Amino acid sequence: MKDSMYLKRLWGFTHPYRLAMLTGLVLLLLQVVATNAMPLLIKRGIDLFISPEQTTLDTAERVTGLQQLLGWLAAMAGGMFLFRVTHTYLMTWVGQHVLRDLRMEVFRKVLALPMQRIDQLQVGRLMTRATNDLDALQELIRNGFIGLLANLLLLVGAMVFMWRIEWHLALAFYGVLPVLAGLLTVVNRQSRKAQRAARSAVSMLNSSTQESLNGLFTLRVFNQRERMRERLHAQSNDFREARSKVVDWNTWHFPILELSRALAVVVLIVACGIWVPSQTGSLVAFLMYIRYFFRPLEELAEQSQQFQSGLASAERVFDLLDEKEIPPDPEHPVRLGSVAGEIEFKQVHFAYAEDHPVLRSLSLHIRPGQFVAVVGATGAGKSTLLSLLNRFYDPQAGEILLDGENIQCFALSDLRRHLGMVQQDPMLFSGTVAENIGLGREGATAEAIEAAARRVNAHSFIMKMEKGYETELGEGGYRLSTGQKQLIALSRILLQDPEVVLMLDEATASVDSETEQLIQDGLEEVRNGRTCIAIAHRLSTIQHADLILVLRHGELVEQGTHQELLRTDGYYGSLVEAMKIGLEV
């Protein structure tokens, strides 16, 4: 039942190409007619011009008749060739376009998934669905839909023509089919199970391979290469065993078909000898139809692995497409014009997992233009606070207000246009320095990009690179140091020029003191009049804050300035002592 549902949904992606599909279907029908007409011509030639029991023609008439017959057979063969080549080209064209549409739909879906779901899905599995699974679906479209239809029409056509020629022989042949159908049903069912297991195994292997490549430096630092090698070896063995089962079950197709074809030939010869011993032409035509009947089955056997793989891939792709997306924007969103930057959390409760709350009834108030530092031990909920403000997640209870309006009343794109965020480990993309900085504002000029870089003191090191702003950074910006990546990311935010809030996940935590000072100077210039929130791990950041929010186990336990909190001699004091001796908080 599920298979038919997946095939129906996949078929829906072919609708924009109905004309090509219809043309392919017409060519397919012509191919089937031409193919099944050839045994009839041969039967007629045997009965009229060859069989001594049937023909009363002299030699000249028989030669003339055979020449005409050969002409018709040549025309039929040429038509079959032309129809098949054109049909194959059209179906390949359709398959490529449907694959493109499916890939774009999968990418659109991944981009629309909630962050909480993306956190749960592994990158390797998503890559498998966006590459291997979609390639398998292309084969399912090209060989599954039209290929299956072509083979079914050839099968049905052969059975119909058999019945019209001689129903006694047709009944004898039909008696072989239940045995063949039963054996193939068992094999196909087991093959499908094995294919599903193989697809799951390769997904796990891809995920681990991706993880090991991304974490190669860490594996070497902690001397874990051998452990990862053993893990990949075990998963490779699992994949090998799963694929072996697929191959094992698929190898049964050809022996079953060969045995059934031999049985059908024997049955037909015996039946012809009993019921219609004088109809030599009918027997020859039936033997040809047996070939036409079993040839599609052989093709299906060859395509069985592709077909089963395609169905398993369809299941995985459509399961992804059925994932819940980010909640849509309100039907009538509140429009953000000029924003002052007042932020308020009211009894906000949030948990990534239902039984493990991260924020518990959190309430806080930030005035416009304040520079706020958020401190707390690891797991206190600091990054979650910023993620909720950005609406990467929505709280399970409570509300978050921006200038007195619930942020869920705004369109996401409108909200995030006012929010700028630099993470501790900024993401840089393959491309030039200018392209990475320009990500902050579409259509930014070279002058604007350079101005943003100058404001955070990134211009000097950029100009020392071989091509300046046109230097290719490579994947992840591997050519840059951590501090340089931070400066590029800050340039990107400055170019975006968030109108109200600049949020920093301790952007200066991974740089040296000299670079930190350069960044701090740039931030002071752009922070003028803006609300700024920083997750802080350094005293140099905290001491300059207008307000310090102290989180502990998801609750706001203290708030005030640095000096005010030190005088209370509370939890904040212990955090400061930990900072002084270099402990992470």
What does this structure look like?
This protein is of the alpha/beta class and 585 residues long. It has two domains: 2-321, ABC transporter transmembrane region fold; 343-580, P-loop containing nucleotide triphosphate hydrolases (Rossmann fold). Helices cover 64% and strands 10% of the residues. The chain has helices at residues 2-12, 18-50, 59-112, 115-120, 123-130, 132-165, 167-174, 177-214, 216-221, 225-250, 253-275, 280-321, 382-389, 412-417, 433-437, 446-455, 459-463, 482-496, 513-526, 539-542, 562-568, 571-580; strands at residues 343-353, 356-366, 371-376, 397-402, 405-406, 419-422, 501-504, 531-535, 547-552, 555-560. The chain has a six-stranded mixed β-sheet, sandwiched between helices. Helix 2 (18-50) runs antiparallel to helix 3 (59-112) and helix 8 (177-214) runs antiparallel to helix 11 (253-275). The longest helix has 54 residues, at 59-112. It is elongated and about 120 Å long.
Layout of helices and strands:
Elements: H1 2-12, H2 18-50, H3 59-112, H4 115-120, H5 123-130, H6 132-165, H7 167-174, H8 177-214, H9 216-221, H10 225-250, H11 253-275, H12 280-321, E1 343-353, E2 356-366, E3 371-376, H13 382-389, E4 397-402, E5 405-406, H14 412-417, E6 419-422, H15 433-437, H16 446-455, H17 459-463, H18 482-496, E7 501-504, H19 513-526, E8 531-535, H20 539-542, E9 547-552, E10 555-560, H21 562-568, H22 571-580
Parallel strand pairs: 3-8, 3-9, 6-7, 7-8
Antiparallel strand pairs: 1-2, 1-4, 4-5, 9-10
